[in-house]
Amino acid sequence: MKYILLIGDGMGDTPVPTLANKTPLQAAHKPTIDRLCAAGEALLVRTVPRGYPPGSDVANLSLLGYEPENCYTGRAPLEAASMGIAVPSNGAAFRCNLVTVRYEGNDRMTMLDYSAGHISTAEAAELIAALQATCGTDKLHFYPGVSYRHLLIHHGAVPEHLRTVPPHDWMDKDVTSLYRQYLASDYLSELLRKAAAVLADHPVNQKRLAAGKKPANGIWLWGEGGKPAMAPLRLRYGVTGSLISAVDLLKGLGVCSGLEVPKVEGATGYLDTNYQGKAEAALTALKTQDFVLVHVEAPDEAGHQGAVRDKVQAIEDFDAKIVAPIAAEMDRRGEDYRLVVTMDHYTPLAKRTHEAWPVPMFLYDSRGIKPSSGVSYTEENIRAQVEESGLGLESGAAFFARFVELEKRHG
Length: 411
Prior knowledge:
The chain is of the alpha/beta class.
C-alpha cells in the first residue's frame, strides 16, 4: 500500500464577492480533485490545537501525525533543520523575512509587503550576504534561504520581553508597537537600524526601485525557538517516505520526522514553481517508499496577497499539475494506494491571514470506499458530509493513524 498526502497550503476560504460569492475551491476547475473526492471519504480535521497560533508550522506538524503540544518549539528551528544549520543549545533560530516597510519618523512603521514583492532568491542572496558582512556578530549570524525567507541564528538567551509575530498577518498595517519591542534591546535595535541602512543603499534595491518593484528595505524577525525533539515517522507509524516542498519550513519537518527531502530545481513556493518536477519526485519516491507528502505553497501566498484570481489559478494548477499526474500514474502502475487532498489551514482572502478552523479533506482509496462522499471538494460539501457521517477528527494524529490504517496493520 502507498500513502500519498497532497497539501494545497491555505486553500480554504470564505465566499468571495467577486467570485459570485463562491469560495476559490468552489470557483476553481479541478476535475481530478472533484472526481477523487466523490469516490472518497470526507473528513474534517482540527490541525491547529486549541490555544495554538494557526501557522503552517503547527498545522503541517499535525498533518504529519505529530502532537504540537508535545514537540513544537517554533517555526525557525524547523527551517534551520532543512538548511542543515545547527541551533545552539543556549540560543535560538529566528525566521528573517526580507520585507518592504514604510518608515514614517519617530520609529513609526507600516508593513507594506511581507515578501518584498516576492524577491528572487538570487537577489535575496546578495542582500543577506551584505547583511552578514555588515551586521553579523559572534552573537548573530544570517543564513540565506529561498526568496524572502531567511534565517538568523541567535547565540545566547533571547530578550525576555520579545514577542514576535509573522509579518504576513500585518500587511498594510501599522507595526510600530511590534517594531519597538526589538528597539527595547540595544543590540537588536542596532541590528535593525544598521540593516535598514545597508538595504537602502544596496544596488539590488536600487535596481528594483528603478524597475518599479518593491525594495527589500527591512528585515523582520519571528518564529523563534530552540531545536525540536521529534521521533521519526517510521517509529511512530511504521512508514518510510519523502517530503517534497519548495519552502524550508516543510523541508525541515521532513528532516525532523526522518523523511527524505529531495531537491526539486525550480521549486519557488509560488505560481511559477516547478509543478512537473515535484510530481515526478513524488512518483519516483513511491517506487521504493511507502509514503510521500507533496506541499504546494501558492494558494497560501495568494491568500496573503489578497489576490483572488491567483488563488483560483493556484488551486487549478494544484489539480492539473500535481493531483492529476500522480493519480494517473498510480492507476497505471496498478498499485493499491490511499490519497488525501487537504489544506493545512484556511487563508481567507478577505482576512489575508490564517484561520484555525478545522480543515476539510478527503481520503481516496484505490480499492474503493463505501459509502463514498458523492460530492465535489468544497468547504461546504465536506462540512455537510461530516455532519452526517460524524467523521470529524480532533487532531492530526488521529487523522494520520486513520490515513495509514495503523489499527488495521497493527490489529
